[in-house]
Amino acid sequence: MDRVYKKVELVGISAKSFEDAVNNAVEKASKTLHGMAWFEVSEQHGRISEGKVVEYQAVIKVAFKVD
Amino acid sequence: MDRVYKKVELVGISAKSFEDAVNNAVEKASKTLHGMAWFEVSEQHGRISEGKVVEYQAVIKVAFKVD
Amino acid sequence: MDRVYKKVELVGISAKSFEDAVNNAVEKASKTLHGMAWFEVSEQHGRISEGKVVEYQAVIKVAFKVD
Amino acid sequence: MDRVYKKVELVGISAKSFEDAVNNAVEKASKTLHGMAWFEVSEQHGRISEGKVVEYQAVIKVAFKVD
Amino acid sequence: MDRVYKKVELVGISAKSFEDAVNNAVEKASKTLHGMAWFEVSEQHGRISEGKVVEYQAVIKVAFKVD
Amino acid sequence: MDRVYKKVELVGISAKSFEDAVNNAVEKASKTLHGMAWFEVSEQHGRISEGKVVEYQAVIKVAFKVD
Amino acid sequence: MDRVYKKVELVGISAKSFEDAVNNAVEKASKTLHGMAWFEVSEQHGRISEGKVVEYQAVIKVAFKVD
Amino acid sequence: MDRVYKKVELVGISAKSFEDAVNNAVEKASKTLHGMAWFEVSEQHGRISEGKVVEYQAVIKVAFKVD
Amino acid sequence: MDRVYKKVELVGISAKSFEDAVNNAVEKASKTLHGMAWFEVSEQHGRISEGKVVEYQAVIKVAFKVD
Amino acid sequence: MDRVYKKVELVGISAKSFEDAVNNAVEKASKTLHGMAWFEVSEQHGRISEGKVVEYQAVIKVAFKVD
Amino acid sequence: MDRVYKKVELVGISAKSFEDAVNNAVEKASKTLHGMAWFEVSEQHGRISEGKVVEYQAVIKVAFKVD
Amino acid sequence: MDRVYKKVELVGISAKSFEDAVNNAVEKASKTLHGMAWFEVSEQHGRISEGKVVEYQAVIKVAFKVD
Fold first, then answer.
1. What pLDDT digit, counting tens, does each position of E2-46 carry?
2. pLDDT tens for each residue of B7-66
């Protein structure tokens, strides 16, 4: 019952969607973090170039269990 | 002009997208609520398992007309 | 280094997704604004009709360079 | 000392004022809720038609005692 | 379905009430903006002189349809 | 140019309106504070009794010049 | 995966502690709600009488599974 | 009905608990303030020394009736 | 008494300080806006290059009188 | 005077109280972090099972000195 | 360990910088308050005249020990 | 396009200004972090001693590219 989680804040980026941006951040984090349990979206923004959205950016907090 | 709306807070969940999570919550609510007029997203989070996003969770407020 | 940006707030609407709502707002803005550089999502809501989501609405701030 | 209150969120609407919008919501709620003790205004907005304010809308939380 | 709205932020002022302050801002805006659809109150403050409230100030966002 | 203001937080109450609640707080404060310059509304709530609004409560910050 | 939760807002009160106030609200809710899964504290306040804290009040949101 | 309250912000500190920190602040305030009616917790933090929590700090607003 | 102000949101940038970033935005705005009366800082951020802060960015709202 | 602190975000969990949840997080962190100086509570929530609170969860930021 | 602090809210003003505005408020407060320990910036704004920033205004909370 | 950033939260301190406090935090971070791209100010506070501001403290988030 006395487990502890740590949250780290990441910015994922995708040309397709906010969900894809979240996935990119989680996939990258999975290379160094184990025991990831949930994420929370804190901000959504993106880049515009020549009048078109070219990047969706999702700022997320990822929580993982501390051993 | 003197109509009144009530808002209820729901958490919809989907393996596919935040939009789908919203739809699941609205669909479930439609079984008992009539006159739903709009929704507002208050939070977006999700569940991660084995390094992958397995659930998108949308916390929404749904407003419906009070008879 | 001393460039200045202006932000305007827009509400984009789409029957498909929040990303599409953002795109609709940016596309409309591109007809009169030049030098758009980024957007920020401030609110997400939508319209429900007969128990189904019929519109996704994204409130965004669009930043563009002031000449 | 161990009484419990529940809060419900309502949107009252009036052509006259925000106070009247609050009253409309409370009056409607009084038909089904008993023991209402206080309200809190969370948002104030309204509708404009042909360049004039035609509706004041007050989003309130109403608290009532749970038996 | 793919209409777009723009929001502008205004400060209305009145010696009488917050509602009157909102109306003053909307009335002024109606001279240059068409298709205004709704407003949202973001702040309420005022000026005091010689121990009395002499001005009610309402900061509102006004949304209008972009052609 | 180097004047300093202090803000105090007050709760005004009225059976009539939020504006009247603000006025009651400012009038009471004027008995001990001099040089009041502006107020800001931070919260609006009220009391309900027997299904009717019986009190409007305005939480305000009042700023006055420090000698 | 497509389960839906509903959140209701409650105010629990206790003479002892905020935890006890949370428990009182949850215990009362358990008489009519089934499938409660988690709670979130949104506000903490209390009542003072004759210079002493006589009540701890916890405003919480309780989430339960919608069948 | 036209009573007025004033709120002051205090930081209470305790080695035991947040409730005790609230009590310490209220007790201290009771020496100079009369007619205290309620408190609201605005922040909770604390001090850590040699890897252990040694102080719980509760920032509260205390409201008292203005004569 | 019934004057109306409009607020626009700008991002000023400077290599020196946040104050300088505010000044750059106000100076640029002064070329097209008349009657500017006050500004409010909403965000402060900046750019880092090769381990050093190279830009201070101030997001401000500028209010000006509407004729 | 030019020391620097870093903040990390942790979720502590306890069956007993929010204070105990904070302590569990700090104790776990003390195994890898040195120079912890203070914590700030950002969220409080918990888990409910069979109608009873079974876990208090405190989300805290812990600040420690960077060498 | 059971010391208590009080916070008061001040608005400092300076023609030079936000830091100077903070200093002006603290200096003025030091004439009547003893044991001031820290300050927190809650808002930053300023006055514009003839297209130039003529005042930086810092709203701060100042905490001092209550004897 | 699919790069990922991580944000860490730091508290920089300076006897001179908030900008200097930001710089101190960034300079310290540059010893262990590479690819820092931007910072965001989340809080500004400071320490007072003998009636004078002796420290400016800037809480910032620093974002850097994850390889």
1. 799 999 999 999 999 999 999 999 999 999 999 999 999 999 999
2. 999 999 999 999 999 999 999 999 999 999 999 999 999 999 999 999 999 999 999 999
Question: Which two tokens mark F25?
Answer: 């707080």
Q: What is the ipTM of this complex?
A: 0.96
Range of the domain at J31: 4-66
Chain J residue numbers touching L9 (CB-CB < 8 A): 6-9, 61
Distance CA(J12)–CA(J20), nearest Å, equals: 8
What does the angle CA F19 – CA F21 – CA F23 come to, to the nearest 5 degrees? 70
H or E element that contains J23: helix J18-29
| Residue G2 sits at the chain B interface (C-beta within 8 Å) | yes
What CATH number should be reported for the domain holding residue E20?
3.30.1660.10
Angle at the Cα of A44 (from L42 to B40), degrees rounded to 5?
105
Of F26, F38, F62, the CB nearest to E52: F26
pLDDT at res. I67: 85
| Count, residues in chain B | 67
3-state secondary structure labels for all residues of I1-59: CCCEEEEEEEEEEECCCHHHHHHHHHHHHCCCCCCEEEEEEEEEEEEEECCEEEEEEEE
Q: Does C36 touch chain E (CB under 8 A)?
A: no
H35-54 pLDDT, tens digit each: 999 999 999 999 999 999 99
Q: How close is the nearest chain J Cα to the Cα of L40, in Å?
A: 14
Nearest of A39, H29, B5, J31 to residue G50 by alpha carbon: H29
Half-sphere exposure for G59 (CA within 13 Å, toward CB): 13
> Hey, is J60 helix, strand or coil?
strand
User: Is K2 in a helix, a strand, or coil?
Assistant: coil
**Residues D4 and G24 sit within 8 Å (Cβ to Cβ):** yes
Classify burial at D32, counting beta carbons within 10 Å of its beta carbon; exposed 0-12, middle 13-18, buried 19 or more: exposed
pLDDT at I16 > cutoff 70:
yes
H or E stretch covering K66: strand K52-66
- How many separate domains does chain G show? 1
- DSSP letter string over chain F? ---EEEEEEEEEEESS-HHHHHHHHHHHHTTT---EEEEEEEEEEEEEETTEEEEEEEEEEEEEEE-
I67 touches chain E (CB under 8 A): no
Residue of A3, A27, A2, A1 lying closest to A13 (CA atoms): A27
**What letter represents residue B56's amino acid?**
Y
